[in-house]
């Protein structure tokens, strides 16, 4: 039986980051203003572990939010050491962390290897240099290519995160980025629609009319196309949409942009609609659609959107545990 995967997310906000990407106010995105101490990290890990049944689960500690390998070496080591006793006791299977493509070299990778880091995620954001430049990322697509190779050669699992809807971005550029992510051999990815967060350069651009975020519909449709590319290439999409921290949920920090608490469900609804829409042409007005058990919510659609799209047809969705992937069958009731 496949083990259930859990991440214990630990945010290290902007501590080591000398950059200021136009969309980023990392302290606000992570919903946390202070950098956690080693003791706080221990407490957080313990608390999370209490909620996870040890049987049949695989737990990773995930350092997210900033630029981990931009920390001073002794600070990186301090954080990594906190996790080691848990790894030795078998409670944690490994560590994953996110960092910038231009802040990793072979020396840094050796240190991470020695401390049970298994997965390194790079904030690639785009593989188009113009988009990276407008976002003031401070690195190029070639940096992402070179670092991805180093990470894979050193035996780590590679994550390449992408952001859609940055200034200068287009659907074609996003598709190009997704294809490059596949080509670079990423094991997993995250798709983040660009949001306008309070206190960022992007907020100024938005308020002065120099930036227009994607609409929610656009972000969903772009993500659908990207998801198809990743799924057909075996790249695991571990996240679509931003982590809904409290600030975003209350709307306090979110100025504009395609934020939705159920963003992934919206995208999967559209993926299913691409499969189901041809059924509108069927002559019968009454039929059952059998879909895999784990997919029924997406087939019916967020807020029953797909079911409603059948309008005058009488359609019932039925979960069938023998079905896999996105297989489905129709049984006519006329
Ligand atoms: S590199 Fe990361 S943490 Fe630093 S400003 Fe850019 S997005 Fe924020």
Please specify the SSE layout and strand pairing.
Layout lengths: L3 E8 L14 H4 L8 H14 L5 E8 L8 H16 L5 E6 L6 H9 L2 E9 L3 H6 L6 H13 L3 E8 L6 H13 L4 E6 L2 E2 L3 H7 L8 H18 L2 E5 L5 H5 L3 E3 L6 H14 L9 E7 L3 H5 L4 H5 L4 E7 L8 E4 L2
Parallel strand pairs: 1-2, 2-3, 3-4, 4-5, 5-6, 6-8, 10-11
Antiparallel strand pairs: 7-9, 10-12
Bound molecules: iron/sulfur cluster.
Task: Provide the descriptors you would attach to this structure in a database record.
334 residues, TIM Barrel, Hypothetical Protein Ychn, Chain: A, seven-stranded parallel β-sheet, three-stranded mixed β-sheet, 13 helices, binds iron/sulfur cluster
The total tally of domains equals 2
CATH architectural type of the largest domain: Alpha-Beta Barrel
Oligomer: single chain
* Residue share in helix: 25-40%
Q: Which class of the largest domain in CATH terms?
A: Alpha Beta
State the total count of DSSP E strands. Answer: 12
What is the element string, with H for helices and E for strands? EHHEHEHEHHEHEEHHEHEHEHHEE
Average pLDDT rating: 91
* Largest sheet: spatial strand order: 1-2-3-4-5-6-8
Query: Compounds present?
Result: iron/sulfur cluster
Instruction: Report on the biggest sheet.
Output: 7 strands, parallel
β-strand percent reads 15-25%
Assigned CATH superfamily of the largest domain: Aldolase class I
